[in-house]
Amino acid sequence: MSDKAEQLTQAQKEQLEEELAELEGPRRSAIVEAIKTARSFGDLSENFEYHAAKNEQGLLERRIRVLRDRLSRSVVVDGKAAADGSVTVGSRVELEDEQGGHLSVEISSVGGVSPDSPVGRALMGAKEGDEVEIDAPSGAWRARILSVGR
Predict the structure, then answer these.
(1) Count of the separate structural domains present in the chain
(2) Whole-number Å distance between alpha carbons of 44 and 20
(3) Which pLDDT does position 2 carry in this prediction?
(4) Domain of residue 35, residue span
(5) Residues in Cβ contact with 97 at an 8 Å cutoff, skipping those fewer than 6 apart
């Protein structure tokens, strides 16, 4: 998968651990039961329920591998704001783009803007009042950081 360390706050790591526990426990058991039930319907070559359950099992096992990989590479970072007010993993950042539009993002690889994304890379280490240039695939754009918080 990847060898790169993944920075997570403690809360983000716990969220991934909870998802993994759910997938490895109740969800895996439910799929095993669905496969068992579908097998009892007879001929597997034309058994839609069996093929659907096996497909779902494959997707589940893939997600489990991804979560285990991410957790094995995770490095817990301090969930408090950086002492100097700079953007770090876990920061909530208010931005204003060139047209005056406002955007609020959280730097997080769990349900937020990844620190490795174009926006994340541009914001990491920046402070309130800084102007950043974001080299996005759709074209570069500039934004001003209005606030940095947790």
Answers:
(1) 2
(2) 30
(3) 66
(4) 6-76
(5) 103, 141, 142, 143
Q: Residue 103: what are its φ and ψ, rounded to 5°?
A: -140, 135
What pLDDT does residue 82 have?
A: 59
Q: Give the CATH number, domain containing residue 51.
A: 1.10.287.180
The answer to whether 91 and 24 have CB atoms below 8 angstroms apart is: no
Last residue of a domain, which of 48, 76, 104?
76
Query: pLDDT tens per residue, the chain (150 residues)?
Result: 667 888 888 888 999 999 999 999 999 999 999 999 988 887 777 888 899 999 999 999 999 999 999 999 998 887 565 567 889 888 899 999 989 999 999 998 888 898 889 999 999 999 999 999 999 888 899 999 999 987
Q: Is residue 85 part of a domain?
A: no
**In this structure, what CATH number is given to the domain that contains residue 130?**
3.10.50.30
Strand order across the 102-106 sheet: 102-106, 92-97, 139-149, 131-136
Q: CA-CA distance, 44 to 119, in Å (whole number)? A: 48
b/e map 60-88, b = 16+ CB within 10 Å: beeebeebeebeeebeebeeebbeebbbb
